[in-house]
Design brief:
The protein is of the alpha/beta class. The two termini are about 50 Å apart.
Amino acid sequence: MRNRFLLVLLLFVSCSMFAQSPKHEFRAAWLATVQNIDWPNRKHTAAEQQQALTAIFDKYAAGNLHACCLQVRSLSDAMYNSSYEPWSESLTGTRGKDPGYDPLAFAIEEAHKRGLELHIWVNPFRVTSSGSISTSDKVYKNAGKWIIKYDNGSFNGQIIDPGYPEARAYVLKVLMEIINNYDVDGIIMDDYFYPYGGTTTEDAASKALHKPNNVVDVNQNGKTDDDWRRTNVDNAIKMIYDSIQAVKPWVRFGMGPFGIWSTQKKAAQAYGLTLPSGISGLDDYDVQACNTVEWVKGGYVDYIAPQLYWSTQLAAQDYDVLAEWWAKDVCEHFSNLLPNGKKVHFFSSQAAYHAYDGYRGYDDGVLEIKRQIESNRANLSSGYTGSVFYNTSAYQKMYSELAATHFQYKALPPAMDWKPAETLTKPTHLTLTGTTLSWTHSKAERFTVYVFPQGVNVSSAIENPAYLQGIVWQKSFDLSHIQNLNGQNIAVCAYDRYGNEYEPALYTEGAVSTDIEWVLNGGMVLPQVPTNDSLWNAFKPYYITYYGEERSDQPKENAATFAYKYMQDIMTNTKSAYKWLGDYVYGVATQQSYSLDSESAWRWHVRAFFNASDGTVAGLQKVATADFSSAGLPANWGSAYQAANPFVFPTSVSAPYTLPIPVKANDTFLGWYDNATFSGNSITSIPAGWSGILYAKWTSTTSALPTIQGNQSLQIYDIMGRWVGHRIEDLPRQGVYIVVSGNDVYKIFK
């Protein structure tokens, strides 16, 4: 156990800890249906009950919870269509009466719509809380021979006796019908096994048939039969867990027992445990024959959510002490001993209702619940943390306050990463229509969505709960709650039913991806020329002049031939494309006694070539002439060209910016414009008639593959602005490329 003073100190300094809320933290609420505690109102119509349930789910989602523990079998009855047990009285006021809809099926659908998991909450053995059921009851007909009656002062009702193997098999059959027929995400049981008040002679019949003579309760010196009873419950739990693993291992199986396991040193010593210091009171081990530690030690459960319905201010049942003991001494300790990386998570059940009923230690109301959340987080280790609030009616009073502080950001349930999940690929075909993001995936059933500023590393972003937008069971997500998507990156991850998250896919809207310095077009404008021949004919006089004057190593009569060859290379040859520009630049640099030693340096000189036009060639328009000879070294040529260029782009853009309209329809910009940096999603519009190319320099390796493949109309350029083809599948080598499709420009990384 940790030093008590250190824990108090930690809580004292954690007033802002909610701002550091973990990304993985179980957050749920118990939704009680027995006696209509939370829902439904039995006097309401089916439609009214459904409306009330969706309103509850809306508050769960708004409060950044991600799971509901819906009570579907409280008194051997059903909030679902059961073959073995009658419809719950809570639905209509009459046990066995059809409510006119299937509440569980409806709840699953509506929960998933809101990104919530639906866990069924069942009471495995309880039949009545008082009195007896009729012999005509459906349960009596199916399990009547195993039902026993209690009247021990604490409990005056009936249970299905766990001492009968057939009774345990019946309960398993009932629960597996739910698992097999409904798409639930989890199952949780609370603290009703053998009843409160203890068992003496009520189970004499099953004891006579099934209790071995050599099984005695060593903790009570052989005076009770509770070791045998605990074994009966252990066997039932293990059978249920194993059966779930055989059909739907992603269904998370948890137990919500009483908050004190045992106060007997002999019981603790048998497991090598030290009991939590200073704790006293009613316990599960002796009162209900409920051995939670055995379930953790054996790995029969995926999580434990003990009902710690006391405060951090109550010494005999101190929340902090108990939470640490369950998290560290039980869950973490025994998880480290389990094979195959198996873990048992600790998610605390917290008494939200005490914040409003004046219970001891809850004088601060919701503030006490916040202290408990901080205590849970102080015990965070290997994913052992979480809150399950009892009950929903109380949680609905505090959800907005928790959402503003300790649950400010959404979270994901800790993954059951020890289970054999199939690796999922990235989503594809990410599309944004208005504010609705959509995608495709062949296998994944649910996904996580992130929105984060450009410049933030993707790997870091998806580990930050501040950027998590939620879990979604559809292949689309509404982003209308994001005030400004411009300058934001969007990522989608496949998220399997075990809670494992996979590699993110990035969405790129129009011309934008992430971490890019855009090098925009500028310079000469000329009519579009669709073929190599027409482009050659347009520039032929200047090429001939250039080769005749600059390439003295070639006969003048061959100048046209060499120029044409280099012109063809622009559109057909990746390696030597634009070599003719390089040759020209080399000549200019030689004249200025300036050495070019890098491939990128000569791009500054290309502008000199485009300034060669004097407007005398038909179809060409003289746009700008810069005197590079007086501009100094090539590093200054860009500013000289910019000063002479009538298309003045801003030098820095972070807000949406529309590219300038061409001088005349169907004109194409040639050249480069290096001095403007357009970061992120700042380019939102390419006007009609603008058919130039955006070249780019990347500052990171993050990328998104466009959803356009095999499209013969694509124009693909490498990072140096060289044309390499029109099929993404046929790119010659790995690297970063520009893809132009109509007015859309993408970055891809192969």
